[in-house]
Amino acid sequence: MRVDLPARTSTLAAASPAAPPALVLEHLHYARAGQLIIDDVNIVLSSRARSLILGPNGAGKSVLMRLCHGLLMPTSGSVRWAPARPVRQAMVFQRPVVLRRSVLANVTYGLRLAGVTRIERRARAMDALERVGLAALAARAAVLLSGGERQRLALARAWALEPEVLFLDEPTANLDPASAAAVERIVIAIHEAGTRIVMSTHNLGQARRLADEILFIDQGRVIEHVPAPQFFTAPGSINARRYLEAELP
Q1: CA within 13 Å, CB half, 167
Q2: Sign of dihedral through CA atoms 183, 187, 190, 195?
Q3: Whole-structure pTM value
Q4: What is the rounded CA–CA span in Å between residue 119 and residue 99?
């Protein structure tokens, strides 16, 4: 079923006044149990572009996302914002976790943790739910939602926080085509409202639709960081060419 996002004035930010600081990764390494997973990554994400991370299974996409968001600490190297200041950021995972409470309470809980006043919490939460097409289900128990509805709830929960940067780790990997399309429309709407998007995916069609720039990672190394049209028409590495031809495992 198609989910059409309402077009209306919102209490959520319609446009961020300034771009967030650059995300700078310098000589980034991450190892687990003696295995090197992220290997000397050096990149700067400095625009408001939608940055999509591509790579074969096991390449390190999810780990790189968690390092960027601060959920993992590097073994060596650094992840920093330049200029340094607190940055409002959120992350949505492939399998969203929902709380055993109502759909509305799932969103207001995150706002409460963020220090939003009680009066403002409900208005912002309802606004976010309407934007993702879930306002009619606000009173429903979140555990009764379908997979696609849960992912839209996770996006509403993140969007309500008005993040400057939103990390998305393969948010449509487990969804049917209609639900995946709804998530894509929401991601575009969040970006158009002023949030920088950094997203991993294994879906090349989705990357073509959403990406402004591509980070291609293979065996823990970012070997291409280029505009999306360049990546899809003239990839600079043999591994990227093979990946696009579905030759990599």
Answers
A1: 20
A2: positive
A3: 0.91
A4: 21
Q: Retrieve residue 111's tokens.
A: 């706002």
Q: Token pair of 211, please?
A: 């990406």
Note whether 193 and 15 are within 8 A (CB). yes
Instruction: Show the tokens assigned to 241.
Output: 């060419």
Q: What is the 3-state secondary structure (H, E, C) of the chain?
A: CCCCCCCCCCCCCCCCCCCCCEEEEEEEEEEECCEEEEEEEEEEECCCCCEEEECCCCCCHHHHHHHHHCCCCCCEEEEEEECCCCCCEEEECCCCCCCCCEHHHHHHHHHHHCCCCHHHHHHHHHHHHHHCCCHHHCCCEHHHCCHHHHHHHHHHHHHCCCCCEEEEECCCCCCCHHHHHHHHHHHHHHHHCCCEEEEECCCHHHHHHHCCEEEEEECCEEEEEEEHHHHHHCCCCHHHHHHHCCCCC
Per-residue pLDDT tens digits for 33-54: 999 999 999 999 988 889 999 9
- The residues that bridge with 215 in the sheet, in sequence order, are 53, 225
Residues forming a β-bridge with 24: 44, 80
136-174 pLDDT per residue, tens: 999 999 999 999 999 999 999 999 999 999 999 999 998
Q: What are phi and psi of 183, to 5 degrees?
A: -65, -40
